[in-house]
Amino acid sequence: MRSIGTTYISVNRAPADDVRGQAPAGTTKIAIRQRLLKSIFLIGLLTLLVSPAFAVELPRESLVPGGVAVLPLDYRGKNPPHIYYLDKRVLVVKANKTWVAVVGIPLNTQPGTHNIEVREDRATVPFEVHDKTYETQRITLTDKRMVEPSKKDLKRIEKETARIDDAYSHWSDDDRLELPFHLPVSGAESSTFGLRRVFNGLARAPHSGMDIAAPIGTPVLAPSDGKVINTGNYYFNGNTVFLDHGQGVVTMYCHLSEIRVHEGQTVHRGDVIGAVGMTGRVTGPHLHWSVSLNDARVDPALFLPIGE
Ligand SMILES: [Zn+2]
Fold this sequence. Notes:
Elements: E1 8-12, E2 27-31, H1 33-50, E3 68-72, E4 83-85, E5 88-89, E6 91-95, E7 98-104, E8 112-118, E9 123-129, E10 136-139, H2 151-168, E11 188-191, E12 196-199, E13 202-204, E14 210-213, E15 219-221, E16 226-234, E17 238-244, E18 250-256, E19 258-259, E20 266-267, E21 272-275, E22 286-293, E23 296-298
Parallel strand pairs: 10-12
Antiparallel strand pairs: 1-2, 3-7, 4-5, 4-8, 6-7, 8-9, 11-14, 12-13, 14-22, 15-21, 16-17, 16-20, 17-18, 18-22, 19-21, 22-23
Bound molecules: zinc ion.
Residues 191, 207, 209, 211, 288 line the site of zinc ion.
């Protein structure tokens, strides 16, 4: 959280006509007013949006590839407007009588101005995406087929990719979403979101989730209420569960030793959905957890309470 009130600089005594004449002799502490005002405005806005008096808390905004844009809308309709970004429907929540679009920014987004589309008004709302360079992680795998799959493996991967894409594109009008998420497994974060990945010297897709290391068999818990929309054993992801939390918010749990839910099942926050394992492409037991909004994988840390 941005701190306020501490943004002061010491400067030489102000000129005689300066109205801040009551300052002690020698130096005058002046606030960097604009920054302070901006901070107060932002904190005010955040307080307004995340106050417990409102129906839903929001993820933290991070205007970078793999981040989230939180955009209050100038739309007065009673029902939520249909918002699209890159032709994907966007999560809309109501915070203090204001409709707010919560947009996932894909990792491959170019910095610059981007727009969401409000279908009802045929209007666009711009937002800025800033550059972010994610670090590179080099990983060595002894199972070479996990880096360079055979022709047969590639056929399997292609089929699975279609199923995985389907799960991520899932939309339900359900407004059950309750944030912040709880951490699905207690353990140390062993790999952060967004890292560029090089396996055995070959560049592969960036890390689209958060890894949490934990012993095999550690229960994996639903971070919030949801519905199981897909389970399976996938080439890279191993045993996997997808949860739908409504309005395009989909989470994925990978490398499980066991799946303890079935497709179509409703789960509540804290329910066991599986157990930590090391199935699929791994170097050790851990949970890979992805969070997706409007089919964009975003940093799960933005959905957790601060400090978790
Ligand atoms: Zn991972």
